[in-house]
Amino acid sequence: MVPEGASYCGIVRDSRNAFLVTRSMEDGRIVRHPAREAVQSYCGVPLIGDDGVVFGSLCHFDFEPRDGSDDATALMVEVSRYLAPESGMDELAETVAQRITRLSLMADVIRDAARDPDEMRETFDIYAQPVRLQAEALRPPVRVAMEQRLSALLESILASAHPA
Fold first, then answer.
1. Which residues contact 12 (CB under 8 A, 6 or more apart)?
2. 24-69: per-residue pLDDT in tens?
3. Nearest of 40, 43, 95, 94 to residue 69 by alpha carbon
4. In three state form, how does the secondary structure of 47-88 look?
5. Which is nearest to 107 in space by CA: 122, 116, 94, 120?
6. What pTM value is reported for the model?
């Protein structure tokens, strides 16, 4: 943990803008900054939540001077938009839930088309895989809840299977 004010991230937070340093020892903006001698190049962008509050920064730094680029900074700004805690998570959770519901509507088809429980599980997993991949992007508690719904659905399909 770096003490408050000992990194350039505080500048990003306070300005709410990208901050680029390529040669700290020559940069007049940070003459008195405590990180100036150690961190000689830095690029950081703010992470801003849906509520407008800066909750962190995305940055890269080096202990040697490095040339920065506007392209790298622009890419970091673009990536930072996807790192907000709530960025699109509600919509994604709703999409995953709808796909699980649609998968449940296929239960009879999966059950009737399979010859045995192993084939049912395999067929279910084929259709559930894209849903699981999407769910991986969700916050852990939501992801776990979606996986539990998938597991319960599979168990219900297997439990209601006709005898072989």
1. 18, 19, 44, 45, 46, 54, 57, 59
2. 999 999 999 999 999 999 999 998 876 778 888 999 999 999 987 7
3. 43
4. EECCCCCEEEEEEEEECCCCCCCHHHHHHHHHHHCCCCCCCC
5. 120
6. 0.52
User: What tokens appear for 88 in the block?
Assistant: 């699109």
CATH code for the structural domain at 9-80:
3.30.450.40
Residue-range domain boundaries for the chain:
9-80, 89-159
Strands lying side by side in the sheet with 19-21: 19-21, 41-48, 54-62
Residue type, 80: S
The identity of residue 131, as a single letter, is V
